[in-house]
Amino acid sequence: MTLQWTVVALFLYVEIGVLVILCLPFISAKKWQKVFNLRIWSPVARFSNRVFLTMIVILIVLFLDAVREVRKYSVKNLGTDAKLLPNMHDHMHMKLFRAQRNLYISGFAVFLWLVMKRVVTLINNLASASATTAALLAQTDDANKAAKKCLEDNEMLKKTLMDGTGDQATAEGMQLLRKEVEKLQEELKKSEDALKESRVAAGGLREQTDGLAREYDRLLKEHQVLQNLQNQDEKKDA
What we know:
The chain is an all-alpha fold.
């Protein structure tokens, strides 16, 4: 086996091992997501798409080369030449076997590379969905508890108000609430009366202000007339 096919075979074995580890049932998706989010993967994460596409291209090229080798050493194409030499038939079969082996290795490497990418994506999505579901369940439980408590309080209050079967503390509390409401109503009425008086006083002040403004304008006009007369007298004396 040449160096390139040895590397492809090792890559295939690594893919199989990684997929087996990823499929272990006792490791949850959240734990895998924590592993994927480690700082050691941050430099690789920047070029993850490029690495993925590069490996796909390399493996596809090797797969196509293996297909070409299989077609080259097939018995149909070399059947005539194999009859000329006694050992050529076995040699061609050996070449064909190696080509088919390389074809299977490269094909499964491409397939498992795509599967591994998909499995990692699904694990991340499953972990995110699990976290979201847990948060929604917690919110739902809190909302159900709050709603249940409100219903119980409403039922107790309704029973106290309608039937009068509440205890003494509840009755005293309701009495205090009624007194507080009456007090607030009285203060509101006082505030309304004070507001009306303020509006009346403001109207009177506005009328006084308008009268003073008119009186000031009249006095200003008289002063202007007297000033003009004084100027005329001065001109005549001169």
